[in-house]
Design brief:
The protein is mainly alpha-helical and 116 residues long. The protein has helices at 8-17, 42-45, 57-64, 71-109, and strands at 34-38, 52-56.
Length: 116
């Protein structure tokens, strides 16, 4: 199905949107190698991110035929994907901490302190 190349930046955005989880079987990184692929033919349905999804290697292979990569290419791809996953988790943790700080600030400054 993937007749058009998906940029690394777009693939990262799709992984993040899909929470590093295969759309078909629900397998999650880092236990599986993931690929972004078109849901429908990009010639007919377009190349934007609404027509892209995350698939594990097994589901990707079932959709497209065998993925031909050398062991070294697979290791390099998995390393890159693990770095993307760690960055995503770091971003989510940072957002959660910022939300907690924001809610504490709001709750302490939201009250005037006077009793009527």
């Amino acid at each position: 199905m993937n007749s058009k190349t998906i940029s690394p930046e777009m693939e990262d955005a799709i992984f993040r949107r899909d929470r590093f989880t295969c759309r078909e079987c629900g397998a999650e990184s880092p236990s599986v190698y993931l690929r972004a692929d078109y849901i429908n033919n990009p010639e007919s349905f377009g190349t934007d991110e609404d027509n892209l999804a995350t698939f594990c290697a097994e589901c990707y292979n079932q959709r497209n035929g065998k993925m031909i990569v050398t062991p070294l290419e697979m290791m390099q791809a998995r390393r890159s994907q693990l770095n993307q996953l760690l960055a995503w988790k770091h971003d989510n943790n940072r957002l959660s901490r910022d939300q907690v700080k924001s809610s504490r600030t709001t709750s302490t400054t939201g009250c005037s302190g006077t009793i009527r």
